[in-house]
Amino acid sequence: MADMVSIFMSIGLNEQKAKETLKNEALSSTLKKAIEQARGLLGSASIDKTAGTMLYNMVTRLKDSTRLSFLTEYIITRKINSELQLSAALDFIKSHPQENLDRLQFDAACGVGVVVTPEQIEDAVELIIRKHKDQLLAERYRFNMGILMGEARTALKWADGKIVKNEVDMQVLHLLGPKTEADLEKKPKVYFYSVFFAAITACLTAKEVAEVTLGKSLMEQLRGEALKFHKPGENYKTEGYVVTPNTMNLLKKHLEETGGQVRTRFPPEPNGILHIGHAKAINFNFGYAKANNGICFLRYDDTNPEKEEEKYFTAIKEMVEWLGYKPYAVTHASDQFQLLYDLAVDLIRRGHAYVCHQRGEELKGHNIPPSPWRERPVEESLLLFDRMRKGMFAEGEVTLRMKMVMEDGKMDPVAYRIKYTPHHRTGDTWCIYPTYDYTHCLCDSIENITHSLCTKEFQARRSSYFWLCNALDLYCPVQWEYGRLNLTYTVVSKRKIIKLVETGIVRDWDDPRLFTLTALRRRGFPPQAINNFCARVGVTVAQTTMEPHLLEACVREVLNDTAPRAMAILEPLKVTITNLPTSAQVRVPDFPANEAKGSHVVPFSKTIFIEQSDFREVMEKGYKRLTPDQPVGLRHAGYVISVQRVIKDGCGKVCELEVTCASSDSVEKPKAFIHWVSDPLRCEVRLYESLFLHKNPEDPAEVPAGFLSDINPNSLTVIGSALVDRSVGKAKVFDKFQFERVGYFSLDPDSTSEKLVFNRTVTLKEDPGKI
User: Fold this and answer.
1) Which end of the chain is more exposed for a tag (fewer CB within 10 A), N or C?
2) pLDDT tens digits, one per residue of 561-611
3) Do 456 and 541 touch, CB atoms closer than 8 A?
4) What distance in Å separates the CA atoms of residue 436 and residue 430, rounded to the nearest whole number?
């Protein structure tokens, strides 16, 4: 082992990287061969770090080992000396898997011998600047410079990207001059009310994301070259894709069956409720398909009968549709149980799987020793697998394992295990069930999926994904990974949410303090706000952890335009207007910024109620609302009231005010206007704060005693005697309102005809210094 580490370090790998490489037996063997071949070409000379890095990158991405010596020669002789050339070389080899390579064609495709001079770069950039000159002069530095870079890279394919970028920057500066104060002003806010921005950012850097064209619609951008994903039928052009002698025939058949259509799938396990992280996956899978005129399946990965329940199947579909998506078809992994079993038998017959008697605890972790049953005869494994199918072994006694090594070094993953639990859909028909590693890629293949989009933790399973499809000689889709979306101040683990429910900390999976999608809906979060949030986060390779207030900002943006206004009083103080001539009806606009969107009528009588906090008996500096010496205006009513008498209860607490009113037109404009209600409805209001006290309640460094010890005692406040104006009397469950000066609220399912219940969705975005 030490010798191999030394060999790998001799080409520039650090010790840690060399040791990690050794964990992958196939990669180590191929890299060693490449090094030996390179040394044969160099003679006594050593392999420098640049060439060594190129060799390592080539070996990790090359699946057709027959081309190893060919590419090694090109790298060592410096004919291929950039990452761009290497990618082109690998693409060429994938697209010519069974042909004798034509070196002239190969050299042309890979830019071998091409030298791009500074003069050529300058001339090409000058032409591009000239093409966009008018728009550049008009928009100056607000122009999307990514367009210039994109066209320059197309025109100068083999040029050094940094030199091209410097030339573009220099010529733009020469044309526009230095940035002015106007150029440095922030751009006007543009809200991305489309889920599809997320997909645009999948393969872009943070800087490139910031430069995405805003002039075109997001759909237009997605239909173009914004994503570096393969086109249907061109799977072989994807880095790491394995090409077999039958690949091209399988791809041809795939295109005949799909017509070149983009196909994605959203494959949740029906053993829990979807959460905010799933919203990102839903948006990306359904959004990418929709933007490219494709289809997306909702496929339940129902291969573990011990944890699946009908309520989860129903809730998952409901949440997908709530977010605005309609699946092309709803499928189940269990639909394919018989076919998956038949394929497992075929896998054994081909010598790629075996029945193993090692117990579960023996298979945990990495670097486990090979199974003593790995080389058992095919006929013996077939017989034992049939006995597994017939229920002749106990749970955990035997498994079916695949003969392959995963990217993380894990050896021979399990394909089938025994479970004597009736399945939700198939009952007692089966007692053996396939694992994710076996099922997922095969269901993708069966459904002719083109882009299998999944989160980053499944990257270690990509090699098994390709291996299994190819081992069975089936059409092989392409797996693409992206980073998970996490939020602070919450937990989304199914196991931990169950603990919160069982201990009575939360009511159920839809408790509005959680970040499950059902909980967010109950709290009043509009689906478009969740989609907008996912869009702004983007689909990056790195895991994303966001603050809840960023999601809440998206909620406010949507509700500000969609939630009609009403008036509600959480802590009522009775006010009697002694000189009001007569009761009246007051018309209140649903959206004060756009009164054309409608209005409603509320009563206005001698008795009204205001917030206790809107009156102070003793005047304080900076306080602008009602005091015995300071009048205040009543919103929408057209009156200003002045205190005449303060009435207190036996404890000395103010319980009522007697005031007089005057028309707003007849008196000096007051310093403030407050909301009020008259002849109101009584209601219950639930106010929510963060469920946890710390940002990362699952982190032992922050919360040593565990997440259950970190509960915020003030996460829920229930006000049982709030008052709301009668305009909300006919509201339906989940209807949303802005209670003026209070916040955004949604009608809870607990509401009855006798008593309405409102959940505070989010507070108003107000100046925190405002009194």
Assistant:
1) N
2) 999 999 999 999 999 999 998 899 999 999 998 999 999 999 999 999 999
3) yes
4) 17
The CB-side HSE value for 155 (13 A sphere, CA atoms) comes to 18
Is 269 annotated as catalytic?
Answer: yes
Tokens of 36: 């030996």
Structure tokens at 376: 């058992």
Q: How many CB atoms lie within 10 A of CB 399?
A: 25
Task: Compute the average pLDDT of residues 150-167.
Answer: 87
Q: Can you tell me whether residue 25 is helix, strand or coil?
A: helix
Strands 263-266 and 295-300: parallel
Other CB atoms within 10 Å distance of the CB of residue 309? 12
From 19, 237, 484, 496, active-site residue: 484
**8-state DSSP, 630:** B
Please say if the pLDDT value at position 747 is more than 90: yes
More confident residue, 544 or 660: 660
Q: Is 207 a catalytic residue?
A: no
For residue 488, the number of C-alpha atoms closer than 13 Å in the C-beta half-sphere is 12
- Triad 353, 357, 363: Cα angle to 5°: 80
Strand partners, 577: 659
CB-count burial class (<10 Å; 0-12, 13-18, 19+) for 640: buried
CA 597, chain centre distance (Å): 34
Phi and psi torsions of 249, nearest 5°: -65, -40
Q: Please enumerate in sequence order all residues whose Cβ is within 8 A of that of 115, keeping only pairs 6 or more positions apart, or say none.
A: none
pLDDT digits (tens, 9 = 90+) for 236-288: 988 778 888 899 999 999 999 999 999 999 999 999 899 999 999 998 899 88
Q: What are phi and psi of 681, to 5 degrees?
A: -95, 140
Q: What does the DSSP 8-state code read for residue 449?
A: -
Residues whose CB falls within 8 Å of the CB of residue 16, separated by 6 or more in sequence, listed in order: none
494 tagged catalytic: yes
Indicate the pLDDT class of residue 187, thresholds 50, 70 and 90: low
Q: Among 657, 644, 671, which residue's Cα sits nearest to residue 608?
A: 657
Point out the catalytic residue in the list 389, 494, 507, 616.
Answer: 494
Within a 10 A sphere around the Cβ of 181, how many other Cβ atoms? 6
Tell me: pLDDT of 422 over 50. Answer: yes
- At residue 193 the predicted structure's pLDDT band, cuts being 50, 70 and 90, is very low
Q: What pTM was computed for the model?
A: 0.72
Percent helix, strand, coil in the chain, to 5, is 40, 20, 40
Question: Which ranges of 323-377 would DSSP assign to H, the alpha helix?
Answer: 337-349
- Residue 539 to residue 531: CA distance in whole angstroms: 12
Tokens representing 367 are 């670097």
* Alpha-carbon distance values, 711 to 502, 516, 698 (Å): 14, 17, 12
**Alpha-helical runs (H) found in 188-246:** 197-200, 206-210, 218-223
Alpha-carbon distance of 736 to 746, in angstroms, equals 4
Report which residue type is found at 210: A
In the set 269, 407, 698, 702, the catalytic residue is 269
Structure token pair of residue 160: 């050094």
Give per-residue pLDDT as tens, 196-239.
444 444 333 333 433 433 333 333 433 433 457 889 999 998 87
C-alpha 79/C-alpha 57 separation (Å) is 16
Burial 69-105 (b: 16+ CB within 10 A, else e): eebbebbbeebbbeebbbbbbbbbbbebbeeeeeeee
Residue 36 CA to residue 29 CA, distance in Å, equals 11
Place of tokens 């089966």: 430
- Mean of all residue pLDDT scores within the chain: 88
- d(CA 332, CA 330) in angstroms, rounded, equals 7
| Amino acid letter, 368 | I
What secondary structure does DSSP assign to 393-431, as a single string?
S-TTT-EEEES-B-TTS-BS-EEEEE--S-BTTTBTS-S
> Which residue in this structure is represented by tokens 């500074």?
118
Residues comprising the chain, all counted: 771
Instruction: Give the HSE-up count for residue 401: Cα atoms under 13 Å, Cβ half-sphere.
Output: 26
